[in-house]
Amino acid sequence: xxxNKRKLELLKEKQRYNLPxxxxxLENLKLELDYPIQKIIGFIxxxxxxxxxxxxxxxxxxxxxxxxxKIKKVIKKGDLVLDLCSGSGFIGLALAxxxxxxxxxxxxxxxxxxxxxxxxKYNNLELNIIKSDLFANIPEQKxxxxxxxxPYLKEEKLxxxxxxxxxxxxxFAWPEPFSFYEKILEKIDNFLADDGWIFFEIDYNxxxxxxxxxxxxxxxxxxxxxTRFAYWQKTAKK
Length: 238
Hints:
- The protein is of the alpha/beta class.
- It has helices spanning about 1-15, 25-30, 35-40, 60-70, 90-100, 110-120, 160-165, 180-185, 190, 205-215, and strands at about 45, 50, 80-85, 100-105, 130, 145-150, 190-200, 220, 225-235.
- It folds into 2 domains: about 1-40; about 55-235, Vaccinia Virus protein VP39 (Rossmann fold).
- The chain has a 7-stranded mixed sheet with strand order 5-4-3-6-7-9-8, with helices on both faces. It has a two-stranded antiparallel sheet with strand order 1-2.
- The relative contact order is 0.13.
């Protein structure tokens, strides 16, 4: 029954991209081996960009598309934008496609950096792509927008299609689900411009961290009713 359900999911994605509605022998084998549907197809296409998934990188979810739509409401032409924990580059590339801004992608993973460079070239977009552990290799400057979709899951049982094909370093936060947010916010004054915005993708395990330590952050749910976003605008100091 499970394999039949995954076949339907694969056909649904193929229909979405106007691909032939057939499942090959190789695709059947990949379904049996729990390959993610997006890995079988080889790419995702959202927000005007095509994101290939050749490397072992975090697969963008539809919830991240919601985050991008929120950023689009405040981003301006010429803004300096930093996408931390950028993975495949989806967020930064989608923003670069939307508006002429100066965008930097940063990730600690060599595979993520390679994937982001490939995706940038394919989509004919010019961005600054840096290998960096959060802010470590980012020249100190003031960004108008900082966005991060860092690891935020507790060590927990996930589907094999996730655990076997996506890097654990992009999924799990240690020692706490909010550890990456904590590290980023410790240095935020050095990198976020006055009146600048910071956007995070989160889950319910981190909402209490924001409510207790950063009560000015707006916490919102995604289209499925799950806690998913935290964002805040820095007020200029008088």
